[in-house]
Amino acid sequence: MNLLVVGASGLLGAEVCRQAVAAGHRVVGTYHSTAVAVPGVAPLRLDVTDRAAVRALLTEVRPDAVVATPYRYDDWAVTADGAAHIACAAAEVGARLVHLSSDALHAGRPTPYLDDDVPTPLHPYGAAKAAAETAVRAVDPGAVLVRTSLIVGKGSKQIQLGRDALAGRAVLFTDEARCPVHVADLAAAVLELVPSDLAGPLNVAGPEAVSRAELGLLVARHEGLDPAGLKTATIAEAGLHRPAEVRLDSSRAAGLLRTRLRGITEVLA
Ligand SMILES: NC(=O)c1ccc[n+]([C@@H]2O[C@H](COP(=O)([O-])OP(=O)(O)OC[C@H]3O[C@@H](n4cnc5c(N)ncnc54)[C@H](OP(=O)(O)O)[C@@H]3O)[C@@H](O)[C@H]2O)c1
């Protein structure tokens, strides 16, 4: 298969590339500001905010499938418009599209979120991810939208945040629950979805919900760091308005996919 990974320089994109190359696929991977460090991948520079450039690249590469991962937390043009540009160009060349979405499009509630729960974003990043989904679905109803949660593994920003909080340089919330997933599990799930005909939103996250603070303690145990230094607070204490409990119910994905999505306690055992 001829696979295009947009965002191959990122945490998830690079792992998708590694696994796709190992599986024998021809892989083209795009980057924006960081080089692609995966052997066997043909790197191409791309700015997804440039609609014409996205179209030109897909017309040149003519992939069978596209895995779309790019985002910038505070940049609507990358996260929302970029996703739309990729979807339009993929549809034009008839490529299967796996779009990476996020639990950040939910407002938070005590009960877990199902695959097709409608977005209720609280902050601009969540709104951008919701807008991206809307655009992708409108352009290509056959695309699968992978809603995921905190991605952990080597190079993960979430793990680094845990280290920073253990060193007193950051704060982890005790009331912010998420379902972390290992990057290798998520990448394997994404690659399973490529040849499938699954369409629409699908939760693909770990089966175990933990608070950010609990994740920090798991990082301490895993890395042999002193848990006593962990700096924690509640969202209210920090004076913030952000999603608290966002648990993705990934049981449908777990039933559909061969990939086992491990819980965070197992991942950081
Ligand atoms: N990380 C998490 O915990 C988490 C949680 C939930 C959902 N997600 C979703 O999962 C996906 C992958 O996340 P990740 O952690 O792997 O992201 P990441 O490591 O931050 O990688 C982001 C990628 O986007 C690329 N990019 C940024 N601006 C671009 C632009 N203007 N044009 C083209 N490419 C651009 C980056 O390229 P350069 O580095 O070369 O600039 C990089 O390859 C995202 O869609 C994210 O919303 C992530």
Helix proportion: 25-40%
Secondary structure tally: strands: 13
Q: For the terminal residues, how far apart are their CA atoms?
A: 35 Å
Round the Cα radius of gyration to an integer and report it: 18 Å
The kinds of small molecule bound in this structure are: NADP nicotinamide-adenine-dinucleotide phosphate
Q: Strand order, main sheet: write it out.
A: 3-2-1-4-5-6-11
Beta-strand content estimate? 15-25%
Helix/strand class: alpha/beta
* Average predicted local confidence, pLDDT: 97
Identify low-pLDDT runs.
none
Features of the shown structure:
269 residues; alpha/beta; seven-stranded parallel beta sheet; two-stranded parallel sheet; binds NADP nicotinamide-adenine-dinucleotide phosphate
Topology:
Elements: E1 2-6, H1 11-22, E2 26-31, E3 41-45, H2 51-61, E4 65-68, H3 76-92, E5 96-102, H4 124-139, E6 144-148, E7 151-152, H5 157-166, E8 172-173, E9 177-178, E10 181-182, H6 183-193, E11 200-203, E12 210-211, H7 212-223, E13 232-233, H8 251-256, H9 264-267
Parallel strand pairs: 1-2, 1-4, 2-3, 4-5, 5-6, 6-11, 7-10, 8-13
Antiparallel strand pairs: 9-12
Bound molecules: NADP nicotinamide-adenine-dinucleotide phosphate.
NADP nicotinamide-adenine-dinucleotide phosphate (NAP) binds next to α1, α3, β5 and α5.
Structure description:
The two termini are 35 Å apart. The protein is of the alpha/beta class and 269 residues long. The chain is built from nine helices and 13 strands. It is globular and about 55 Å long. α1 packs across α6, α3 runs parallel beside α4 and α5 crosses α7. The protein has a seven-stranded parallel β-sheet, with helices on both faces. Strands 7-10 form a two-stranded parallel ribbon. α1 links the parallel β1 and β2. NADP nicotinamide-adenine-dinucleotide phosphate (NAP) binds next to α1, α3, β5 and α5.
